[in-house]
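step 3/5: co-fold with beta-D-glucopyranose
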Amino acid sequence: MVNIEKVWFEHHEPNAIGIGESAPRISWTIVGDDKSWEQASYELQIKRDGQETESVVVESTESRLVPWPGQVLSSREHATIRVRVTSNLGVVSEWSDVFIVEAGILFPGHWECLLIEPNDPTETSPQKHRSVTFRRRFSLPNNSDIARARLYISAHGIYESRVNNSRVGDHVLAPGWTAYQERLQYQTFDISNQVCVDQENEIEVDVGEGWFCGSLAFIRRSNIYGNHLGLIAMMIVELENGESFHLNTDESWTWAHGRILDSGLLDGETYDFGQVSSPCKSVQVHKCPSFTRLVAPDGPPIRETQKLEVERIIVSPTGRSILDFGQNFVGYIKVERVSGSAGTTIQFRFAEVLENGEIGVYTLILDVGGPTTWQPKFTFHGFRYVEVSGWPAGSSLKKEDFIGIVIHSDMDCTGHFRCSNPLLNMLHENIVWSMKGNFVGIPTDCPQRDERLGWTGDINVLGTTASYLFDVTGMLASWMKNLLVEQNAAGGVVPLAILAQEEAIWGDVTIMLPWTLYQATGDQELLLRHYESMKSWLKAIPRSSTGLWKYDGYKLADWLDPSAPAEAPANAMTDMYLVCDLFLVHATSLMTQISAALSKYSAEIKQLRQAFETEYVTPAGRLACDTQTAYALAIQFDLFSSTEKTRHTAERLSLLVRQRSRFKMSTGFAGTPFLGHALSKVDMSNVFYRMLLHRVCPSWLFPVTMGATTVWELCFSDGSVIPGEITSFNHYAFGSVASWIYQTICGLKNIEPGWRTFQVEPVPGGARRWAEADHRSAYGYCRVHWEIRKSTTEPEEQFWLEVVVPPNTKCHIRLPGSTYLVVVGSGRVELETAYHPQQWPARAVLPPFSPSNDELPKMKF
Ligand code: BGC
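step 4/5: write tokens
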């Protein structure tokens, strides 16, 4: 028997309120272990406020992103929905639970409030904005109970609100960072249980400078989007008797400074318990510049998702007390308990490694009174260590006095991997941690130094891996809408982060990322939304007469190739323009596929391939640039006109890995995500296995052996800070290798966009005895587990495979070394075959009479 596990709308969390779509598409996940279960039809039951329940039966095999039935939702309309499905054998499931869908403010004219700002001449364009609290008292009519109460709210800055002294919602750093000039996100909160009819109520909203007017990035510029803190809020309380009460931000609100003396995303926070709130002052009101730019979120909010205990307290050689959380993470600390005499000033300094680095600071000033708890509100850091100074005399610093709070965009975790090699497992966990730390509203490069920017190349190279590990669609779809705004403003040129500049890979994000998300979800809407942007990027690329990139100076290209000097990370071994052209051919070829998916016409790619071949490929199939990145990309992007040339290139690539770099990492941002896939494509997975399992510097596992708990910006770092700007210990780009771990070690990959049909073709290798992975697609859990087992009856070892296929999907399974394809429907299946290992280890190519003959990896696993 199957059941409906959850129902959700568009790419929102289940039961999301305040969504921006009036006809949200509906998806549900079916769970159960029925064999070959397929859906023949579905039934939706919708109950709108004040209306009869409607039922719709649709004959369809689709359970993902099905159209909204019937009349569209109006602004603020609330409905509940449940689903049941009928199988192709006519068996009807139970009804799902009831799920909520509620529209936000769908039309600009439905906003009734004004933008309020502190009416304070000292607040005009300062470089720092001290955070403020906006307040309003109100009473509700007391002749009826409350049916439903909602708060629609946003800010110029970041906000946290309280109603009757209890915090509203669990969002952190709301409204998040968007292209504020055109898109200001608002949030909708259910405050039905926080407002009262029988007492006076109070709403308070703290607003800090955040991204809106705080100092940003290495340019440390403030007031980029505006030079005042501001608040926009509309409260609507619906009463049981049909009446409603509206409270809007307007001139009746007041503002005051509170105990936060100073707060900045990069700099930290200063909080003084001894401050008395300043007298309430009047606000100035403005018509919102345009309510058209108030947009509902597309994905999950940033939340506190995990709590970490202090692992140990270290006393440094100079006697300083340092908390060690044992994990590099992103968030802040909470002081669980502190007491001391009034005026005691405690400072917390944050660092990822013990040497030093860019450090945000919290300052906490105590007042008289008993023990208190405290955590900052408008700042976050990337850190593992916290230096504490000024801790009250007489009380010793205890681990239990602190807790580490992890924050990130609260996406569902959709990928897990484990195998018999603990170092590889640790690498996978580190990639997950780096993703969490760099998915804070937008995908960032790093969370600690003065960047924390949505560098487009970083997420472009991580895209596929990201979509295995987490449900990133809502969050990235939202960020991509901001990118559209910035790109339009720059005449088609895609911004790198805050600057618009013509760069391959970084700019190609506008084509490659929607494609990746389409592969993960099957949602064509994402392709359609970005289609014009894709075309304008291809048009904006400066071209030579051949159609390839025109020489135009320095390019980022294979950024952070380990052989590039630390002070010039783009000075890679691989020619910058060859990399740009490889990505140009790839992006253009994706454009052909995207156009076909959308039934649109796209220009021919043939001519571009020809131009590439003429410029860079020798008649035998070598490339003008003899590097791993060049060969890997050319193989992966199908650049060769014959299989002989591909074969020739593959052999050259294998030689470069085995001889020149001797299994050490030798690729930067451009080559790294594709190298393993390219080697597997030409049946050389064993070569990449040895690379992946290599521990000699630079390699993926070297930082792991150096104690890394996240992915480091430099794969050759030993954990100490290298002078220069490349100092991040939480940079996810080299974690892009995880897509190979899922797709090759476990062989788990979608065949159809959206994973309705997927494949399991594991490639065992190295000396590992087992591996397992699962990925939760929109259809449910797709799981693989394999083991190499000794046989009691057969002379050879056996390869044993277990696959779990979710209902309403199909899986194509191929066992290692077999040409036979097994196609199965849902359920659990076990298969076994004789195991013939690939050559292991792949041999290095060494000079004759080399004393070490071959540096065999010393691996027990
Ligand atoms: C960032 C990178 C980014 C690069 C581009 C760096 O400072 O940390 O990850 O992509 O700049 O120039």
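step 5/5: annotate
The mean pLDDT is 92.
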